[in-house]
Amino acid sequence: MRARICLLIAVLLTATSMSLAQQWFSVQTDHLISYSEGNDHGARDAAQRSEQLIAVFGQVFHRKDITFATPPRVRAVRLGMPAIPNENVLVRTPAEDFITVDLAQPESWAQAAKSISALTLENNYPRAQPWFDFGIANYLGGVKFTGEEVELGALPPGMVLPQAGQWIPLAKLFQTNDVSQLTVAQRENFEAESWALVRWLIDNSRLAQAGAYLNAVQSRGATPERVLNEAFSMSSAELDSEVRQSLAKLTTTKMPAPRIEGILFKSRKVSTADVHVLQASLSLYGPDSDRTLKELVAFMRQNQENAAVHRALAWAFLLRNDLDNAVEHIRRALALDDSDPSMHYLYARWVNQGDENQIRIQSAEARMNTELKAALKRDPNYAAALELLGLAQLSGEDTKPALANLQRASALRPRNSRYYLNAARAQEASGNLDAARNLATYARSGADVSVSADALEFLNQLGKQRKQRQEWAAMGIHTDTNVQHTKYDNLQEAIEADEKAEAKAKAPEPTADNRKTEFMKGRIVSVECGSDAGATLKVSSGGSTWRIQVADRNAAVLIGAEHFDCNWHNAVASINYKQKGSLQGELISLEIH
Q1: What are the extents of the domains in the chain?
Q2: pLDDT tens readout for residues 292-328
Q3: In what order do the strands lie in the sheet with 97-102?
Q4: CA–CA separation, 440 vs 486, rounded Å?
Q5: CATH architecture group of domain 518-592
Q6: Distances in whole angstroms, Cα of residue 238 to Cα of each of 6, 200, 217, 233
Q7: What is the tally of helices (H) and strands (E) in the chain?
Q8: Which pTM value belongs to this model?
Q9: Residue 523's beta-bridge partner residues?
Q10: Is the four-CA dihedral 555, 557, 561, 562 of positive or negative sign?
């Protein structure tokens, strides 16, 4: 299962080199894999603690299904040395994310928990502003497990609340979008205030309103001050006062700790070679990447039958666009062990000339289908495989399955703007221009400059008939501006056009839909799903109960949910709709918080 956290529990000789003298063990759970040296006791303890933290995240956000697009590996060590520098706690690579915690230093767990929480949020919550992300990560990083209880709301270790003269007005906090520009002192104050604000939101059951605020700011481009009044019924100054008053007495909340069935954890021995590859992966994409790659190639020559080293080299060579070397290691890894979905996915990417974001080949679905479906059989939540399969289907005009796969991929990667733009392309191909416009607008507002530019171009061309001039040039075909074209240049198209014109002349003229798009936030009371693809949402908002019709629940534009659920009950939602009558509307898009 790809959606898992992997914990690497080690006794290190130094902070950067791993002892390989003893036997290693791994423990696998629903979400994670942990490793320990000598026996599996440390792996079981770390797995239990991390699973509990993930469960607390689910309780805070009322989420049952937690997934990860890239499996983090939490590397717990026993150094007994001063705290690990913050910049070394989380190491991110294209293949995996590594988190380090020193089990001999109790305060080290807070930084590891903060990193786990940040990655969980990134993979399971739509794009948000920095204050929200830092606030949630620090709030969950400060969670304390004591016996059968969990304590929430405690000030995280090492955090100091700003003095009165250093307090950043919340109006300015909401406008801070680039934390890298802050000084060290400003960054500390920013994180502390973000924690205080999130703590106030959770203590006062205001996370749903925060979600509505973030949706309006991130998706609709609304100004923070105006949306604050809509979401919280107070100004930023009033909210500022509320948050500061809540800090006068830092009380905590205790509740039963999530029950994790450790007896179901699966333990196995891990080879010394696999541990060596895991350690090397930490520096395979950093400043020492060239040296590490050479060392891994040398290690591979001495360990030809080790699948892990071939997987690591497959990733490294593919991301360097060295397709010849990449495919050799992909094939070798699959021959040794075909259970890893990433190798099937990489094989499909190799077929596609290494690209993951656009289709580079003819007959893409037929040529990549087998490997992508093999990856998805091993991990149905493999977002990258769903995305590439959807793009391949879209390139072959197989619109319905393409839309389903691209929608699911974007739900699994809620902060990937490229995924939302590709879902917009599928909506356009299926004729749903309103949904395409909403998704592309959301993609345009993200931080990825390249995606924003592509989304703007998409919006400018949305609904227009475009000729693929770049494809023509690639085939050596050039346009002649002196040619006089007629509709009979393509006889089949002309016949179809005449038939459509005749049918249109006989049919009554449709009335243009000039209704404006409306927005509401509320709570889904119930869902009525018919025998066909239609559905009706019963939504409580502003003291009234609305009935929102869904034309096709399988093609509905969803944010924050993987699929339309006919069993939604008491779910907080933000809805874009067109009004149909008194307390009635037709759904355009739906975000679940």
Answers
A1: 1-125+261-270, 155-251, 518-592
A2: 999 999 999 999 999 999 999 999 999 999 999 999 9
A3: 90-92, 97-102, 72-77, 5-10, 32-37, 24-28, 266-270
A4: 34
A5: Beta Barrel (2.40)
A6: 43, 13, 19, 10
A7: 22, 16
A8: 0.73
A9: 540, 572
A10: positive
